[in-house]
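Dear support,

I submitted the protein below through the web form. The confirmation email said the job was done, but the results page showed an empty box. After a refresh the structure appeared. I'm attaching both so you can tell me whether what I see now is the final result or a partial one.
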Amino acid sequence: MTNPVYKAYFDGSCGPKNPGGTAAYGAVIFRHKKRIWEHSEVYRPPPGKERETSNNLAEYLGLIAILEHFIHIEAQHKPIMVYGDSKLVINKCLAVGKSRRVSTYLSPSKPRHYARDL
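What the results page shows now:
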């Protein structure tokens, strides 16, 4: 895609240990080179799941935040380019449609629930 309307970036981390540390992510969206949205969050796992955090979970949550925002602003059908440094997340996105299980990760009907099942 040579000229997307939107460009989005996400990143996640988990520390001081991975897995089992504090997971957090950040995300930002630009429209025609102007920042229109940004968000960062420390993930708070449900009781009993505190040790199930990971860098991969944080990366997914960053992507999910972007996708949820695109749905919120009804821009999911516009030309969008999303950047991240997680090989796992990017490969899963490229595999959407090839596997029923993978496609459920990005389902807007279950926000955030699918990332916890990784």
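Response: this is the final, complete result; the empty box was a page-load delay. The two ends are 29 Å apart (CA to CA).
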